[in-house]
């Protein structure tokens, strides 16, 4: 395992991870919000697209129930039966409830619908007692879970969000909690349900009819705030906390979560709903999502260190994966190749919330801020090996073919080359000698011809001399 991690580290030649931060355009500065604190995050990557006073401590009111419900889903099954004690029903005057009776038995699933749709405070207490034995123990679990998620400015003092001085959070922390909650399919299904009926119970023959309180999901007293891209959320209000709101919205391939803390009443033009719609529209209009799952897995698994027949590192049998919905969020005028990609490998493997074995994280940054990424998962169980009964015939045939090939005949090639060079030299020498011989013959012939001409000339001269002498 360490060897594999070391090889991967060598491949990327870099490590590091930056904390998520806002990637904003100048247009974001012109947004006027009523809320004292606000944040918008990408659900998949955690990229912060907008922030306002995100580290200021605020009172969350009933959006506390996002943590309460998420923790319950993580520590129970939907078919468990919750029996409500008299202590669970002790609430302050005016606290929201669905009128559960002492001794009433309701399933965990129905209890969670009551908590998230109707903000049932007694539902929170009953679930807490069922899972942890008491609300105090459950609150401790909530605080521990908040720390696990990276929250640094949060302290829960109850399960429902009714005002207490030492019950507080921040927009950033609530964004982390809300993001983690929505990644759970059961939570996402429940929070996005508009209406739900709890069937007959041992204390309520007509059951309980539930309607989602979120005004952007269900038209209530303020139908002008219904938002077509809203897929869930949680409302909150107390006199001291003022209005708070968690909202999930999905458009195309982008799913965002916004958190509003301490806003004014919804009958004003500026309120938690108008703030949220303004923020969501801004983000959907100005950002684009780039999927990275396919390219990143191929890069992790397609290294030249491994053959195309490797049972571990190829497209079919890769033991390395990232989140299927992994992506990068960037302003629409910025392309993916303008980002910087970095990889961090953990000192020891970590177990993700869904049980995967995480060995590191791949992160994309732009302008010094994190804009997307994913955990890197190592799958050990079930992978094929050379000892498994898988079809390795292609790999074996290829290996046999390569092993059966005769080695390259370097010595023979060298001898042939030398013979060719020698033959070439000999041919060249012969041609040169033939040329020299021909030239010598030509010179001899010319010399003989000259000598013959001279003899003829002398003979002619002698004959003419004798001829002239006789005449005298």
User: Beta-sheet strand percentage?
Assistant: 15-25%
The assigned structural class equals: alpha+beta
- Return the average pLDDT rounded to an integer: 84
Task: Characterize the main sheet.
Answer: 5 strands, antiparallel
> How many helices does DSSP assign?
11
Unreliable sequence segments: 1-21, 303-314, 383-390
What gross morphology would you assign? rod-shaped
Provide the descriptors you would attach to this structure in a database record.
472 residues, alpha+beta, five-stranded antiparallel beta sheet, four-stranded antiparallel beta sheet, 15 strands, rod-shaped, disordered N terminus
Question: Could you walk me through the main structural features you see in this protein, from its secondary elements to its overall organization?
Answer:
The chain is α+β, with helices and mostly antiparallel strands. It is built from 11 helices and 15 strands. The strands form 5 sheets. Strands 2-1-9-8-7 form a 5-stranded antiparallel β-sheet, with helices on both faces. The chain has a 4-stranded antiparallel β-sheet with strand order 11-15-14-13, with helices on one face. A two-stranded antiparallel sheet has the order 3-4. Helix 2 packs parallel to helix 4, helix 2 runs parallel beside helix 6 and helix 3 packs antiparallel against helix 4.
